[in-house]
Amino acid sequence: MKSIPTRISSRGDRGSLFAALRRPRAVLWTAAGVVTLGFLIALEFAARHYGVRGPITNQAREVVFAPDSGPLLYAGLALTMVVLTWRQRFVAAGAAIGIDVVFWLVRWVAGADMNFGNGALWVVLGCAVVAVTRRRGGERTLLLKGVGLGLLLVAGHKTGDTWLLITSETRKAVLDPYVATADQALGNPSWLVGRFVEATEPVGDHVLHLVYGQLPLAAALVGLYQLRHVAAERRFPSHHLVRTFLAIGLLGPAIYMIFPVVGPVFAYGADGGQWAVANLWPHTLPQTGGAPHSMPFDEITPRNCMPSLHTAWATTLFVHSRRGSRGIRFAGTFWLVATLTATLGFGYHYGADLIAGVVFALTVETAMRSFARGWDRAGIRLVAYGTTVFAVLLVSYRYLPVEMAEHPWAAGPLLVLAMASVILGYVRTTGPREPVAAPTRQPEPPQPAEQQPELV
Fold this sequence. Notes:
Blueprint: H1 3-21, H2 24-49, H3 55-61, H4 70-80, H5 86-110, H6 118-134, H7 137-170, E1 173-174, H8 176-182, H9 189-199, H10 203-213, H11 215-226, H12 230-233, H13 241-258, H14 264-267, E2 295-296, H15 309-321, H16 326-345, H17 351-373, H18 377-399, H19 401-406, H20 408-430
Antiparallel strand pairs: 1-2
Helix pairs in contact: 2-7, 3-7, 4-6, 4-7, 4-11, 5-6, 6-7, 7-13, 8-18, 9-16, 10-16, 11-15, 13-15, 13-17, 15-16, 15-17, 17-18, 17-20, 18-20
């Protein structure tokens, strides 16, 4: 008789678990997880086909071998730690640093490649083990969300590297002459800004390289600012920057496969070597007589220009920084302006890429925001409109570049107005809504001691 309550309780726990899994939102997240895992496995096989390691293998190797990017792994750890108390954060950070010191000494003695970051990955994985073995209910879910967020940040970077490899291996010809011709409607901004950056060397060049390269760090800082109350409220905001950042990185490279472009510094500059049309960028404007055509290019340079994902990420960073403090708002504005200048001034993108990047970013941001808060007519309409504008831009660049170049005073303003219409629609759709962060509420009562163990 004494065993009956135990059996009933066990069945009740399993029943509540199954009931939770049957909820529409839980089913949706489970499906999203399965799709993401399948996508990563597919990329792994694709990378193996071309003789290199895929995103899963690369991330697994960093448990032991020297990581490619230590700061990226510690940024992932920082995102995981938003769900921890301050004491647990100090323990986790100390453990990560201690593990890294041990790895560093072993590598130094063995003469292996030197880098740091293994400790951060070990601690993130340790948090996953703690969540599964020593947490229950909402506390387990919260910690697993933190672990997933940290690992997704790293996996997103690895996935992007694999995508870029696939674009260079599978897209032998690029469409730069089409975009360069269409860009005449905008006044060839890459050539103009390229000369400006060259004139400000070495200061301007160094500052812009720093800003351009550290865009993920800036996004992590804004994301941490948005998630600063998670530990106290025991839940994540309904929508935050990191979600959109990851979605852009996942969806954007698929467009690279449809519209492969390498950028003016490669197609028309010295960096393109023998594959370049000529060494024209940034001092001599390209002469595009007749209809443009695709051109062959090497199998190394990524086709990662259309749309400009750096522009898309910087736009998203700017949008999310509007809800922050004055310093956060200033940083978001500075990073947007500096990133746009760098993408053009270094010859990595055409002006047409930037317009497409802004439209792409606001469309994805609207979709992610609507997914988190519930779809309404305004959100659906703006996502549909942004998708249509983005598709029209790509079609125009591909099939109407000569007409755009021949009528710059009509085509140029139309391109800018198309982008401005999406911006205006986004402001009107999202302006009256609630802030991005979840409303403040009283923290839940602490769980019993056995349900809230320390990490060590």
